[in-house]
Design the sequence.
């Protein structure tokens, strides 16, 4: 699913692979030149080429990459689903984000808000102690600046705390996630051991697919348990 770029891009606005990595790796630590090339091979992004064959990325390509990487990281979406979503955007449609009930807001996904510790506590309606407890329980990574994923977790912890569930009570949940990560690691190990860029990219894609399937199974088991309680 390659995009057609109808107009020449001003040379001064174009970025090399190295410049793209410099802008995106602070948000996506596992990004590499091979992954950028793999995303191009899959038709998700179409950088222009210099006469010498070097890839050059326009600002729109950079935002498109940020959107793709965010959907992979935060929504565990396979590239096929992301590709279909981008194809609809390229046709001028306003598709729903996969798994989202309301209108899509790609601008929010593309930029992503960042919060200081104080901002995060205020936005989530939490207390500094709750954030500290969440970090101690490994539910939120320790950091000076937090993303929207931390905001969503902390806001959920505020609700749980109001119902008598503290971060320390969720250590078993964290342990279960680590066990699931171990299952995923074992499943993709044959691809990871090959060490070539294509195999590693396929391993990352497979890991996201497995995580989505585990989410479905976990959600169904939890719903069944709640129904038994009722």
Sequence:
């Amino acid at each position: 699913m390659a995009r057609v770029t109808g107009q020449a891009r001003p040379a001064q606005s174009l970025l090399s692979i190295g410049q793209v990595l410099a802008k995106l790796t602070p948000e996506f630590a596992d990004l590499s030149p091979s992954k950028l090339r793999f995303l191009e091979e899959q038709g998700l992004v179409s950088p222009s080429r210099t006469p010498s064959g070097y890839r050059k990325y326009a600002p729109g390509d950079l935002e498109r990459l940020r959107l793709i990487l965010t959907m992979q990281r935060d929504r565990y979406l396979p590239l096929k689903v992301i590709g279909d979503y981008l194809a609809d955007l390229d046709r001028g449609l306003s598709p729903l984000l996969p798994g989202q009930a309301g209108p899509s807001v790609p601008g929010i996904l593309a930029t992503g808000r960042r919060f200081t510790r104080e901002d995060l506590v205020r936005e989530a309606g939490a207390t500094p102690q709750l954030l500290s407890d969440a970090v101690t329980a490994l539910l939120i990574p320790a950091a000076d600046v937090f993303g929207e994923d931390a905001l969503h977790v902390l806001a959920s912890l505020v609700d749980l705390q109001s119902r008598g569930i503290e971060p320390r009570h969720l250590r078993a949940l964290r342990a279960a996630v680590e066990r699931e990560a171990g299952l995923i690691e074992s499943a993709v190990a044959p691809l990871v051991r090959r060490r070539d860029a294509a195999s590693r990219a396929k391993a990352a894609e497979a890991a996201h697919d497995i995580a989505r399937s585990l989410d479905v199974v976990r959600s169904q088991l939890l719903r069944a348990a709640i129904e038994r309680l009722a």
User: Anything to note?
Assistant: The longest helix spans residues 197-229. Confidence is low (pLDDT under 50) at residues 1-9, 101-111. Residues 171-229 form one domain. The chain has ten helices and four strands.
